[in-house]
Amino acid sequence: MATGIADFGAVGRAFGNRNYAIYTAGSTVTLVGLWVQRLGVGWLTWELTYSGFWLGAIAFADLFPAVVIGPFAGVLVDRVDRLRLARACQWLSLLQTALLFALTAWGHIGIVSLMLLTLFLGCVRAVYMPVRLSLVPVLVKPDDVPAAVAISSLIFNLARFVGPAVAGLIITVWGVAPTFAFYGVTVMALLFAFSRLRIDSAPGGAGRGGGMLAQIAEGFSYTTRHGAIGPLLLLMLALSTLARPVGELFPAFADVVFQRGAVGLAWLSSAIGLGAVAGGIWLARRGSAVGLLPIALAGAGVSGLSLMLFTATDIFWIAIPAIAMFGAAVVSCAISTQTLLLGAVEEHVRGRVLSLYGVIFRGGPAVGSLLMGGLSDLFGLRWPLAVGGLLCAIAAAWTWRGRRRMIVLLERRGRRTPKPDSLH
């Protein structure tokens, strides 16, 4: 059966894995709810403060826990049953959104309580991210991993497209509180999906002994000494810190730059999600890890350039395709990076390496959102992001110079990746 970019055979094979199909169905519903809640939190923050700094601070509370908790979560994933840990994360998410709905509906929410609840959910998702990434190889056959990673990212970004549209409707008609109730209902869908999976357990790797800090150090050392994983994650750090925070400032762009309110916010959020969906569909059709490194590097560069275009205009209908292009480029880089990591990393450190990816993927935007939010109050919304886009493009061009050596190390079909010591 063909596995190239001309067909969707790889997608069909991935969904032929029963457990993965059930998990993806539940995850899709929950992710739509997550994006509904995220838009609700962003709009509520803007209504409470009208401050770019607070938009960045709330995003920081949501994303930064990955930096602190992520490495410990990676060790936990390598030690315990991943499915049981995933269930626990969803129950805690349900508790958070119930409290957020109650406080908002009763008029007792303030910026401090909103930030604390956001911080709580950020901690939960900091644990869940390496769990989610590590589950994929358990739910599908080895040959189906590239397509499964692309599909999972595609679903995430499809939700990013649908969720804001649903949230915009809910906020316009009923207000912001029902967006939190909506998320709570969707969490139950994933919990139900977990109950239908037919796997005895989903254990992590055994690790190589030592305490938690020693195992964190082992994972970090493995990553930094690897001749391809390290540079690729550094590029992801630049993209996550300098470019991706634009999404956290959408409420301010919608209201101040484009003067379109909550409807404009929904348009911007859906456009970046639609671009990401397009990028995900394209990569899901490939079904192979071959050729992904150039895609990852080009995606990072195009992300920076399209962000510069977005910040350069105040014409809404130019900004929409620019931010859609940005979404496609970012997701192309992210999917390619995830797939290459899953193929290159050894099983006994998989959770820890993926937790570092999670630290970058969530922690980078946390630091970047706080930085860009603060700078936006000083220099306006556009200039900080424009400079960030330029620096991101430069970082991609710099990494491109070493692509041939990285390709040799990463794109090894059916062969075991050499140990880090041999990759200097």
Can you tell me about this structure?
- The chain is mainly α and 424 residues long.
- It has one domain (9-423): Growth Hormone, Chain: A (Up-down Bundle), CATH 1.20.1250.
- It has helices spanning 9-15, 18-49, 52-63, 65-79, 82-105, 111-139, 145-174, 177-196, 212-225, 229-242, 250-257, 261-284, 292-312, 316-344, 350-379, 382-400, 403-410.
- Helix 10 runs antiparallel to helix 16.
- The protein is globular and about 50 Å long.
- Residues 1-7 and 413-424 have low confidence and may be disordered.
By CATH, the topology is Growth Hormone, Chain: A
Number of domains: 1
Rg result: 20 Å
Structural class: mainly alpha
Number of helices: 17
Low-confidence stretches: 1-7, 413-424
Net shape: globular
What characteristics describe this protein?
424 residues; mainly alpha; Growth Hormone, Chain: A; globular
What is the gist of this entry?
This protein is mostly helical and 424 residues long. The chain has helices spanning 9-15, 18-49, 52-63, 65-79, 82-105, 111-139, 145-174, 177-196, 212-225, 229-242, 250-257, 261-284, 292-312, 316-344, 350-379, 382-400, 403-410.
